[in-house]
Amino acid sequence: MTCLDNIKRIQGYLDNHGLKYETHLEGEEGEFDYLGEEEGCIVIINPGNDQCIYIDVSYDNYTLTFGGAHAHYDWDEEKNYENMMEDLISLLESKLGAATLLLGGKEWYGAGFHSKEDISKGNANELFWDVLEIKEFAREIADKGGVVECCFWDASLDRTMQIDTELVKADLSAGKCTREH
Fold this sequence. Notes:
- The chain is an alpha+beta fold.
- About 35% of the residues lie in helices and about 30% in strands.
């Protein structure tokens, strides 16, 4: 299956579900000038706000991007396409959101897709435990603070949370942040 075949397959799903989208291919200037030969990007237009979903399709993988988060899926196996589509559907249904960790509230420090249930708990430290267990990162966040911005396809669910820096400092003192970068 070629890259263009994969683009058509995704477009078919979007068409069948009445979703508005744009398709960009190699050779375009501006925002999509990074696309190489037979590569494309599908931009799913959010009718409620300006937070679109991007699906980059290259010669060997799909990249699903929303908010400050993205995930890669190799397309050498059908299961990877199915996983990407499951995540896409969960994003469109706002069962999955994008959480972005900003160091000092400004500098991108990490991001990932998280379930609505996990985000609704309001525990920013729990969402980014994998970053906070890295000693160097935990020290910086303890010093400068951290903000987690969470966005959903349905923007009414968006929220912002603070990293509990006192908890990070306590974890550092207790030797819990042991991974090296």
